[in-house]
Amino acid sequence: MYSAHRSRARWLLWEWAFLCGVVASQGSKTQIRVKVLLPFCDKVGCGWNRGHSIKLATEMVKDAVNEQDFLGPNYELDFSYGDSGCNENLPLLELVQLLHSDGSVFGMIGPGCSSGAKAIAPLVNIANIPLVSGSASQPALADRQAYPYFWRTVTPINSMRPILELFKSWGWTKVGVVWGSTGNFKEIWDDTKNVMRSLGMEMQVKYGAPAFGENTNIEEQLAQVVSEQTAVEAAAILRQSKVRAIVALLYAPELQLIACVRKLSGIKNTIWVNYGWFAHTWYNAAVTVADVGLCSPQEMASATDLSITLNHMDWHPDPTKSMDACAMPGHTAGSFRAEYEAAAIAAGHTVTTESGTYADAVCMFARALRKIIIEDGNTNLLVAGSTAYYDEVQRIFAATAFDGPGGYQEFAIALQDQNALGAGDRRGPMLLEQLVSGARQDRAAYNYPYESADIVVLGSDFQFLYDNGTIGTTPPADMFPACETGSTYDFAQFKCIPCMEGSVFVESLGRCLCNQGRYRTASGNCAYCPAGRFGATYERQSCEECPAGKASVMGAAECNQCNVGTYAAMPGTGNCTSCGEGKRDPELWTTMQQVMAGTAGELQWVRLPGANDVSYCGCVPGALPDSDGECVPCAEGLNCKGMDAVELESGYFSTQDNRLSVWRCFGDRRCPGGAIGTCAAGRDKSSVTCGRCIEGKRPDSDGSCIDCVGGDYVPFMALVIFLPAVLVGIFYLEQLAPGRKKRQQASMLMLILAGQICGMLQQLSVLNDIEVEFPEPLKSLLGPFRIINLDLGMFNVACNGIQSPLEVYLGKLAFMSGVAILMAVVHVLYVCIFSKGGTFREHNPKLISAFGSLFLVALMSIVNAVTSPFQCIEHPNQKFTLLHYDTVVCWTDEYDSPHYAMVVISSISFLIPLGFLAMSSYIAWQVPAQVSRGNANFLQTWSFVLGRMRTGSEGFSVIVILRGVLIAIVPAFPDAAVQVSYVIGVMLVYHTIQIRCLPWKAAAANVIDCMLSVSMILLFATSALFSNLEDTTGLAWFAFFVTLMMIVTALGAVFYSIYVRSLRKQKPFRFFLCHHKGGAGSFARLMKVHLKEVQKREVFIDCDDLQNLDYLFKYVATETETLLVLCVGDVFNRPWCVGEMTTARLTGTHLVLVMMGNSVLPTESMIQNYESNVPDVTKLAAHGMSVEMIQETLRWIHTCDSVTMHGELSFPVLKSVSTALLSSQFNPNPASPASSRAPANITKVDTRITQRTMTQNDERIQARAQNSIIVVDRSNIEALSAGLIVEKGLLQMYGVNASDVPVVLGDSMPVASTVKKVILICTDGCFSSPDVMYLLLHGASCGASVLPVVCQSSFRYPNEAFYEDIEDKADKLLHEIIFKASHNPDRLPLSGVKPDMIANVIKQIFVEIAVNVHTSEESTVILEARIRHLRKRLDGSLPSLSLLSRHTFSDRKVSDFGEVQDKPPAKSMDDALDREGSDEVYLQNKPPAKSMDDALDREGSDEV
């Protein structure tokens, strides 16, 4: 602690050097100034105010020095006095003032107390001022390292060793110790412990401030205070120990407390040894110990009688000793003391023993100055503050030895080592004094520093007196007789007595004490402490009164602090009063106090126990007082901190007039919270929920309102002008291009997805309006969708004079109505200016379609805007405001609310979307009737309702509209849970119907719609959890990614549709084969096989590629480059075929006619009567094709490109056709419509020459024809096509170089006599063909094996009636066979053939099970499986044909032709194919197989 003093003194040294100078002169003598610091205690009270008394002694010595010219004739002493008090602050203040004076001070005497000496000793050493004290006796000042050159004429009590050795010599080994509250006793306490350990003594009792134990610090020690309560506790502990001696390290006030308690408690038979520093009359005082009693001065004299005091000697022991050494030749020590005491009494001061040591301090200074001035004659050293002067004084002090009023003064130890411990301490006697009848009698003495056995007895009558009346130098052996358990020793009666009622026997004390909560009455009984009082300790004389803030019941050992919520305003209260007593809700009342909290020192209310006044009562945190002064629960949005401290939470608003009426500020940060009535900057505080900006301002993104500037008017003007203009422009373009290519080529998928995306975005905008607080980042993602609901606040309408909510609402309705009116005006202008004579009636469907499309796209936004007056949200004050109009209070006209007017307008306006829904329902209901009439105009007019749905699912459009209406009104529901459940229910019903019907025309649209519905259900279900979870971060990110996935997926689908429609280089199908299935099914299959082989691109054929008839025309419109119309059969009378042609015309798809030699195009007469000739054509009305459109198409095909085939169908002919189709003249030019192309180019190929050349030159074909042939009815193009398909399939399996692959024999191909295998293509009427029968009879004549192949499902196996008919016509048929063969040079003549052999040959054919290869009906993979099985049969054993008569054939066994028997169900496809016969194998109700193996796997026993 002294390092701080040294650093504080350094800045004074420079000033001291200038102020220090030579000795000041005044009058005839030079004055040597000395500063004397004494405890006057005039400024600050202190416990030892003896300064005025001591000053008398110092003045007596100073006057004697000056009068006797002790310093010579030219010098004299001059004292200035300062008040040092008994603390460290006053001495420091005096020192600072001294250093700022003239500075010519040659020394300092004092200060009076050790604390002050400790403070200034290091500083005066730095300033070179000698310092001597006559009373600072604390042992710590003996440390020369901490306090260098500190001198004192008083002998310090540095050890209790002398008295402890005395006790040890008497045989006492148990000693009690009680110490005081300040650090002055720390060294004595530590030394006492060490001495007792070295002497083998036991410290039986250790009681004092806990900080005086080991391992403590000075700050803790100084914080301890010995109180009345600790004095009582100390006495009780000492009593139970039964020790003979008690060492008291205490100041006088503390010792007085202990002595009083000792007296009142009757403690006797002990010797008290008191540490010194006491005045002779320290015990002469009245002392009060609470609840114990009062000790009068007389009782205190009795209580302290016979106590021993260990003290230093302040007056010379020899009163006759001359005071010549101190310039008082006529005085002795006794006369000086007597003169001083007389002066003190005369002045009214207390006689102080330290006056003698202070007289010695003055003498010590005077002797040092005398040696310098007179004896050494070295007056040059007399420079105040000089190092030379200071060092010389220190040497003189160390050698000092004289007799003064206080005794003999010497510092002999300093001669040995001035840095040694105690070098500045006086070497002198210490006294053992005993108070006897109020007088202090010296019993023994010893010298300081003490050495063992140094005690000397003063006088021959030395003896100690004891409480039990004994006298002697040693105490009696037994001072404490033992009592039985349950009884106590009565020190007054000197006997054991039993415990009385209310007392308790304390084993450790061996006596009975009044129990806690009781007190000793005047009659000696132990009575209960009354309510409001308490007795904390045993054996009390009275009970203490409970202070305010505490209460107690009768017999309480302590007062209980009033609980939180109660108070005790008066001391002595038995019960605390509840703050809620008599209140409506007592639980809401408490006691609180405002305290400083936090580093910034904010005031904060905390609960207060032990309240001592009703002013501490108030509302608990979470409650606030209402207008009646009653505490009520804190409303939502308020932060009730307790008492009357209330703040708004962020997002809430209320006014000072009605704090409990709290409004919630939904949607933005316009209510920042804080003090009641706080709105964001720029907002009108008088408006409900701070919803209105001050006039001339507009809302900002942070919730505040900022001044309107020039650019703030642009968004609203853009909304009013630009958006309607864009919508009208779109409508105008629609009008300019009715039926044109740009509209016709628009992708259906793109249009459907655009509508679905609009619906999705509107659903997301509705999600913004439900009563769920979405966390980030989901909130930021959903925020921009508010614009879809036409949130005019985003367009700065406030800057355009639209402030009133009613004005904003009417503005929304007017905007939507204005767009419709503009579209009508544009329509009128278009009809009048651009329609070229068209009538309004003709163009009305376009206007209706445009209106309907716009209304359908914006349906949810319109409904949401119209019904917004019903979208009320609840506030904490049980009132409602509109969701989109913050200042409109629902269902009231208070607060200037226009809600009733808005409700009326909304109810009327809502009839419009309801009417639209009703109209759409009626239109969907009318579809079947209109389609049956072929009214395509109806479908075109109402295409905005029906155009996106596939045929038969038109009613789903009503479901879509109804879904939009139902979701748009969800904000009108009152609760978030109801809203979410309602939307999820609507979406689940919609989703169920959607996946059941798959209604959209584009298949991908069904998938996208399903995904969007599921995502929306998931998103709404997730939103329900935000109100129930504390940590919603993970859930918010999940919902964020779900929403983002919806948007990205939908937009990705749109971009893909745009790419597919406009950006891709080629369409999926190079050709689309339009054909009559019954008349050209096999031919179409042959064309696909051949075209795909020669150009490696996909060719569309319905049996392979069409999975849903609703998408048929989509393939023509968007997926096909060229539509090939196979003009075979009844193709122009088939509604679906002419529908494909019409679609090609409308969408600009290239169309090429593939004609046979006998093909006929529709005539004008047929076209005009088409509806009557083909009544089923009205079915196409469901696809938007009227009869007029069909008729126009039939006329249009006459102008289309065509290829005509002449001669018999064969592979070379197909090659010629494919070459023509793939030539540049037939390449489609999408850049120009079909109507603008060049006239048709008709190509004819001489197939006969080509085939003959091929037949003559191709040796491989001729070689194959030698072995195997395929017999077909060449007059039937389907049969011929089927044969060529079988041949092509077998070639692909065997390889082109195989010699066993059968050949379809044309009319010009020679027949070999070596034919071994015959494949018969069984078609309707094939056995009536002479050519077929010729080849069969020829094969029979050659003994060839035969395998029948059925290629038409209509083929019927021969029965008995068939054979009878054949036999009847056998002669005629045989004649035709022979005739044709004779006229064909490539045919060999038949010999030995009889008519009856014809039927027998046919019968032999069907002994073998036929193979089904339905080329016109089955898909490619199934056909491949069939042909693969056909090959297996060819490679196996087949029955042979023979020319037999009917009689001979009937005599033959069936086994000669092969076994025919019943077989168990087939186990596999191959097994089933092996068994094919009369039980035909069909694959029904199966999607197209992906491969041949897949096809085989699908054919099972249940299909046989």
Short description:
It is built from 47 helices and 58 strands. The protein is an alpha/beta fold and 1504 residues long.
Tally of DSSP β-strands: 58
Structural class: alpha/beta
How much helix, percentage-wise, in residues?
40-55%
Strand order of the largest sheet: 8-7-9-10-13-18-19-20
CA-atom Rg in angstroms: 64 Å
Structure description:
With 1504 residues, this protein is of the alpha/beta class. 40% of the residues lie in helices and 17% in strands. The chain is built from 47 helices and 58 strands. An 8-stranded mixed sheet has the order 8-7-9-10-13-18-19-20. Strands 1, 2, 3, 4, 5 and 6 form a 6-stranded mixed sheet that branches. A hairpin with a 4-residue loop joins β14 (322-323) and β15. α1 crosses α4 (114-126), α5 (161-169) packs parallel to α6 (186-199) and α9 crosses α10 (297-303). The radius of gyration is 64 Å and the shape is elongated. It starts with a helix and ends in a 6-residue tail after the last helix. Residues 1-26, 209-226, 476-480, 735-746, 1229-1257, 1446-1470, 1472-1486 and 1488-1504 have low confidence and may be disordered.
